[in-house]
Each structure stands twice: as structure tokens, then as C-alpha cells.
Queue: 2 jobs
Job 1
Amino acid sequence: MLRQTFADVGTRAAAWVTGQLARFEPLAGNELDGRQLKRFSELAFVCACLTRPAPSAPGSAALLSEAARWQDFVRDRLEEPTYREAVRKTPALAYPLLFPYLQLRATGYRSPYHDATVERLASCGHPLVEELLPYRRFERDLVLWNAGLAAEPAWDDLYEATILARARRLSFLDIGDVYSITHTVFYLSDMGRRRLEDDARTERIASVLDSLVIHSWRLADWDLLCELLLCLRLLSRPTALGEPWCAAAAAFHQDGSLPSDRWARGGDAFAAAYHTTLVGVLLADSVLRVRDAPLWTPVRQ
Amino acid sequence: MDAGPAVASACGWLDSLDLPDERDDALRTIGLQLAAAQRRREPPRLPGVATTTLPSAAELVTMERDELVGSCNRIARSQALESSAPCDAQRWEAVLPALCISYARDADPVAVASLVRVAARLRVEPALLDEAVSFLLEQQTDDGSFGLLADSAQSDGSRLRQSLRITVEVLWALAAVAERVGRSGGSSCPC
């Protein structure tokens, strides 16, 4: 029942994203714009998550069909001369500018121009290095590995540096810390493509996520709630309660968007909804793809 | 976790108060009784209600804060609980400690204390409440009262009344946990 609900809301959400593709343009005219680049990068990330080969069952045909359109959109923008040259003109921004390309590279796409840019940067001692927070360093190492441009990440070392590994008091966490935690699980599990071998670690992470689910559900924070539920799916772990799943499914609007008030900017409905809607698509995909893992632990009668 | 020194310090603060208002003084007396109950690991004795309906775990999570505190207080003081939903200790053990942490993240000791009392009433394993109890103990000030109110814009009298309320709320929660720790037996829902 709930799986069918997620199939429906996920399909509507993906169609909403397709209808809004013009809002994911990476450049404002010919100018670089950090906010637009972020949206474009997130679209490329979700695109890669949906289309990269996975050990689980294939994703739903409806979602894959929409993702194929997004992939075309991202590829076209990446090959625009203005975008291609922007990477070479501003090496300091090489990683954020190349991030969308690296996502598509992980799906098999190759751009000789962008590959040459990566090679130049590496030969100049600029292998996409930046001073990064631990979970962002995790992201970069994983992205480069998936793109076929670096060795396998040092999973344990990268994990041990994160807040998720180190935090002992959940009441001390702020919202940025919780986003660090969700992203650490995204990368540690390689978006569900890597099984964690340390059962005790998985157990602890699931327990942390389960606790944080209650907070996000209480505050109707759909963005974080969906990210946390997604994390539990990536680990094939059930939640303690079914109600957060129902709340998340019910939060999707009829047009497919899933707004999170935190992202509202000056009444811009797209800005308020695009990120959470993309997360909603990934959540629906995870529900449909991993069929043998229950969403929550049934109540004992 | 030994809450004894914190409780003793709170007793010292309560003893030191000069409270002309009868209701404040009555609240101080209740606080001292709760502290004594905590030391002896006895059930906190407060005016009870006969029967209260236990909300579902989902209802408790999504309740408005003030409604939650009121509901928790009725549950903690009730002689008997009625429940329309199937009662599952495992669900309460998943929800109540997490909900305590959620309100601790909001820096709300009254809500956390209320939830800790409900958790004790529903026989949640005390170890699962360690973080909530730690949070409550961290709300103690140098004079022994509970409530970090230094940034409050209230008048001295209002602030004292608020400290008194928070101190009694916390002592009630600590007494409920101490009694739960002292009682033998596993976790099973009392519905």
C-alpha cells in the first residue's frame, strides 16, 4: 500500500522536476551564479543516483524515463562553450563546476573537453583540492572514484573524521550537523551501492538516524525527514514507526512538489520546493528499488 | 548516573528561599518532597488522577508543545492508563528517548522533564534515558536551582518563579527515574 503511494508521489515529483528544468540552468545568462550552479549540481547528482547500475532491483521505469530527460539536459549544458570555458577560467571553482560532469561520468558519459580540463588541473598540482569539511572530503573522494579518476576512498578513515562517527550526544546537534550526518550515510553507503560490513557500526548509525527521524517528523521538516528516511533505506534498515513514512508521503503536493519551508526565498515556490522534491524522488526510488527490506518494524500485538 | 549531588544542591536552594506567596511556598514544599523521594527511590507522591487516556506514540510526537506537557503530567500522575491503540513497549522505547532528545535540542527542560516522567511511568528502560537525564542535570546553576535563565528579560520575581517551576519539574523527573531504577522487573507497558 505505502509502496504504491510512493510509486505515485515519486512519479509525480519526477514529472514536476522535468516541468521545471528551465529553473535548473547552471548559468545566469553568461554569468556564474552560485545558487543556480548548486541546483544544477543537485539535479546531476540525483540523475546519477537513479541511473547508475546498482546491486538492487532496477529503479521504476517512470523514474528512469524522467531521469533520462534530466541527463540530456545536464549533458547539453555541460557542453555549452560558456560552461566548458568557465571551468578553465576559474580553476578555484573547478570542483563545484566539474561536480555535475563527474556525476555523469560515473554513469558512463565522457567529455574529452572536460577530461582534458581535469587532466590539466591534476598536472598543475590542483587535483580538485580544497580545504573541506570531513563529510565534504568524503563526497569528493567518492565522486572522483565513481567517475573513474581516483583510487577507492579510504572508507573507514573518511567516516571516522565525521560528526556521525564522533558525536555521542544527539541533543548537541544542530541542523547543519544533521545534514552532515545524512550526507555521510549517502557517501558511506555509496547511495545504497555499498554494503557496510561492520554490523555494530550499521546498528549504531541506524539508531542515530531513527532518533533524528522523530525530531524532523515532529517539526514537519520534510527535507530532513526525507533525507533521514532515505539514509535508513540505503542501509536497508527499518524505522521504529510507520507513521513518519505516512507523514512524508502525505506531504507531497498534488502537483508533485514537496516544499520545505526552510528553503523558501521571497515567495519563490520553486526555490522552496526543488531540493526537497529531488530528495523525495530519491526516497521513492529507494522504496521501490529495495523491495525485500521492510520500511518499518511492525507493531507487536 | 548519580543525580544525588544535584538533588542535594537543589534542596539547599529550595531551603534558602524566602517565599511570601503561598502557592510558591507550596511548590517549594513539593520540590523538597520530590527530592526526598528521589533519595529513597520511592514513587513521587503527587495529587493523582484516577484514569487517563494514553495517546498513541504518533500523537505524542505531533502534539503542540503545551498540550504535550499537559498530557505528560496527567499520564505521570494517573493511577491507571487507558489506551485505544495496541500498547507496545518497544514503540515507546523508540519514541520517548528520541522525543526527549528532540526537545533537548530545543533547550526545553520542562518538556524533557515531562517526557522523562512518562517514560518512567511506561517503564522504559532507564539506560535509554541517560541523555535526557544528562541534559536535565546540565540545566543546574551554581546556586542549585535548575533553569539556565541568565539571558531572560524577566523581572527578578518572575525569574525566581520560573526557576522554582523548572526545579520542581526536574526533581519530579529525577525522582521518577530513581524509582524506576530501584524497581526490579523488565519493561512492560502498564496499560
Note: The longest strand of chain A covers residues 27-28.
Job 2
Amino acid sequence: MKIPYYPGCTLKSTAKHFEDSAIESAKKIGIEFVELPRWNCCGVVAPLATDDIMRHVAPVRNMIRVLEMNRDGLVKDEKRLLTLCSMCYSTLKRSNLRVNELIDDLDVLNDFMYKEEMNYDGSVKIVHFLEVLKEMGFDKVKDKVVKSLENLNVAAYYGCKLLRPKEIGIDNSEVPIIFEDFISAISANPVDWHNKSKCCGSFLTVDNKEVVVDLGYDILTDAQKSGADIIVTSCPLCAYNLDNRQKNIKEKYPEFKEIPVVYFTQLMALAFGFPKEITGFDGNYINSVKLFKSKNIKV
Amino acid sequence: MTDKRKMINVFIMGEAQKVPEGSTILNAIEYAGYQLKKGVGCREGFCGACATVYREKGDYKLKGGLACQTVATDGMSLVQIPFVPAEKPVYDMDKITPDINTIKELFPTVFRCLACNTCTKACPQDIQVMDYVQALKQGNIAEAADLSFDCIRCGLCALRCPAEIVQYNAGTLARRLYGKYLAKKSPELIKRVEEIEDGKYDQEIKELKEMNRKDLTEKYYSREIKLDT
Amino acid sequence: MIKKIKITSHNQTFYEKVKTISGEDIAVCDRCGVCTGSCPLTIEMEISPSNIMKMVQLGQEDVMDYNSMWVCSTCNYCTARCPRGLDVSKVTEALRQIRLRTSFDKIQIDKIPKEELKDLPQIALVGAFRRLTS
């Protein structure tokens, strides 16, 4: 199955291991990501002001690319746009929702983008990789597992954007289960915990580090208390705030013990038996190799 | 003999002027009596000094162009942009790396891009400006260098950008990084630099410098371009 | 928080403005406090999300003088849980926009230390610049 794929800026640099592990793992279960030609940054945060149409230009432009891919035969009748990053997922989906609800806005946007070869008609569907896996059936994932992760206790960190607001969430916003089902499918052991969808502080990491450190401390220690060995996420911003910021957390809370935070696709690639070039655990800030060794999992 | 050419009306900085049909904007401005000391350069479309902003009669679009290359039309309203104030970070090419970190450090405004494409619309060189800004945002220096290659730094993109990015300086950085760190090294270039340093062309340069304008022009247009085989 | 206020037509203008930009029917908020209880950042805010709603209901422009709207990360807990179906994050966005549209910058890009800039991922920079710069 070929599906249009939107990477997002960070997956091309600091989160390259997220992209690499996802693309290779997906191939194994028969999904081929076809990267959008000439995609542009979605803007990360969803535009919320009702009178702000300008910031919907960037997301909608990417949706035009999906139509162009269908026109040019790069994909066949596939209007779904697959995302890995939670922020991209949320921003693209919310813009798509708005132009479908307010048709006048869509006209304004199409008029503004008169240089584009095609107009957007609202027909693209934004999906997250986890949703696609669920739709295919997590059994398909289970079938490809060659390396057991059964001793690994994994805390799934949903963060905000996969679940809220409700109309764009990939699962129930209060009691989500999709991520845990995924973890079970790759043979690891999902742990239940409180802070799975608590905010990591998001972009405040730029100007209000203290807030992010406190939130991160709460989230990470809760995962540890619930018995987690490792945390998985699907957002490069959550990853930065929970992984890289552990150095700042340690400065403020000296008793804090570090815990690895990785992308869910990295564990998927590990379970599928991919080598370290694909799993990319070197790309994470906190070393996870020690943990895998203690659990007798060969990386 | 009097000029029988048809005259058209143009509005230069708000003043109505009659100029001959078919004039370039630059010629129209000078015909109307303005003397340009800034905002004019090679007059051949290469240097990027004569950026101009105009609207054509009946068209709502604000367009950008080079005054020496754009033909004035009847009812056109225009202004010359002699200079664009722009942020220009200072950097040491030996101390920066050809990756996203350099972009974040020197051109953080790139991350304010709205993908509105106004820069591309304003570019007189038909460069996909927004695409190279997006490439920079992704840390793809080679792509940005390639896409921005034809830039002549007229500054219209930066002037029109709602995110206040200075695209052309960021593009220049990309090309410098590409040239220094990413491009395949050229043995011919190394050889030529050695020849220059050894003084092989000193005599020829000296002769050129001493020539009068007429002879120099003649020599320039009758030159043969030799290709080393 | 006890504060003596006087309501004038100016207050009505401000209320209408926030209502228009946010698209939220702010008057229906009955201040049950679910947003405040759900917000992971209430603890960092000088006034709570439900107090933001109250101040906007009363057209109090100095709601923008508190740090609350800049601390909101738009995580949408309030949005998902409001029993009235209101979206407080759209109200904080409207307040930020009113400030930002006067050419106000919450963060000065050129004041961010170079080392920080290099360390932060693109996603953080884009997000912060969109929400916090004019």
C-alpha cells in the first residue's frame, strides 16, 4: 500500500531516527510512505483565532500536494495523508477541519494561493501512523515481531495533540488505549499510569524552561513509579522536553533518576529485528542501550 | 527629427508622467527627469541594484521587478527601491557547519515562515524563494543553495515577507556553505587559483585597466569564450 | 482575588473583541472551575483559567497584564473537559493575539542565547515564534 507521507521539519534533522525507523518498519508490514513533493512546514501550532486565515495557508498547501500526487500518479486514489509527528498531525487536521466547516475560508485560501496549479477541495484525510496500524490490525504488526520485548515495561506518552481536542483525537481523550495496544503488539508490556496525556510544556521550552522542567519531572517520575523502564512518544517536541531536558531536571531535582524516552517506531524497528542504523537509539539523549542489555534485548 | 513614438502615462512616485511606449521602467524614470544615483547598476539585469515595485492598471497585484528589465505599461504606478534595510549576521565561514544548527543560530527568523509564498511572487528572477526557505527550515543546505542559485539579491523578497525573514541573505549563507563544505572540489579551480597567485594574468589585467572605455567595450563584445578541453 | 471594578461601554468593546477573535460564547461560562482543575499549568499562572473567563466576561482589559495567557501551552485539557463546550485555549489565544497585533513580542528572538538556539529543535522554535511573536 502506497500512502502520501508528510514528514515535518524536525524529522529531517534532530528526529531523523523517528523517520528512518518508521519508514523501514512500515515497509515490513506492506506500507510504503511516499513523501510529498515540495512540502512545507505546517506551522507546528494550530491557528486558533477565528479571524486568522493566513496561518491556514501552510497546512492547506500541503493538502494540495496530496491532490497533485494523485493527479501525477505517484499514488493511486489515496487521499489520506500520513503523519508521524503529533504536532503536524494536529495542525494539519485542525486546518482541514476548519476549511471543511467554513467553505468561505477555503475559497479565500484558494484565491490567495492562485499560483498553485490546483485548488484544494477539502477531500484529503489526515491520519496518524498509529491509526493506520490500528486500521490494518495490530495483528499484522504482531506477525512481524522477531525479537521479543516481553520484559520491557513501556509507558506510552500520548501527550496532548494525539488526543485533544476530541474531534481530532485518535482515541478517547480521557481513556485512550491505542498506544497500549500497539505496545502489546510489539510484544512489550504496557504500563498504566496517570500522566500519559499531561502536557510536557510544548513550545514554552523556548522562553519558560522552568515550567517545562517541573512538568517533565512530574511526568517522568510518575512513569517510574508506575513501573516503566522506558517511555515512548510520537512527538519530537515532547521528546525534546522529556528527553533532552532531563539534564535540566537533574539540575533542579538532584535525586531524579534518568529514564530513556524514545519514539514508538524505534521500539517497533527493534522488535522487527532491524540493526542499530535503523533503530537509531544513538539519536536519543538518554542512553537506552544499558536498559536493553539489562533486559537481555540485543540492540 | 522628432520622436514619433506613442506616449503612455505612468505614475512615478505618484506623479503623472508621459514616457515613450516600450520604455523600460528605468528609462521611463530617467526620461521623466529623475537622476538615479542609487537603485541603478549594470542596466543589464545582472546586478540586482534596480529593484522596483509596481502595479499595472486594472490589476490588484503588487508586483516586483528589475527596473532595467521591466517594460513600463500605460497606467502603471511605480516606485524605485534603492536599498533594502536588512539584518545581516556576521559569521566566520571556518567556524560554522553546513547543517540546521547554523541556520538556527544565524537566521532564526526562518522559523517564522508562514509558507504564504509572497516572496516567490515578488521575485523578479522567478526563484522558488519559499521553497528554499522551507529547505533551510529543514536543514537541507544543498537544496537551498540549488534553489536560490539565480538570486541577485535585489531584496524584494525580504521587503514583502510578513514574517520579516531576510531570505536573500539566508540563501547566500546556504550557497557559501554549499561551496565550502558540500560541493565536490574542482581541480580546475584549484589550478586556476594557483595560476592567479603565480601572476600569470597580471600583465593582461594591467593592460585591461589602462584601456579606454571605447576599446574596452569593443574588446568585451568581441571576446571569445575559450573552453579548456 | 478581590477587586473593585466599574463597568463602562469600553468594557463591552473589549469583551466583544475577545468574543469575535476567539469565536467562543464567553458569556455561557458559569465558572465551574473544571478548566482550572484540569489545566496542568494553573500552578504557574497568576490568575487561573476560570478567572481569565470571568475577567473577560466583565471586559477587564488588565486580564492581559497577568502571565496566564503566555503560560498557556494550548494543551486543550480545558477544551476537552468544559461542560459548556467552551474552548478556553481559544480565549487565551485571542488575548495573545490582541497584544501581538500591536507589534508586541513576548520573546525577543535576538535575545535567545546562541547555544540555546542551536540546541532547540525546529519544532520548538516554530511553535514559540508563532504563539509568542508578532
Note: Chain C has eight helices and no strands.
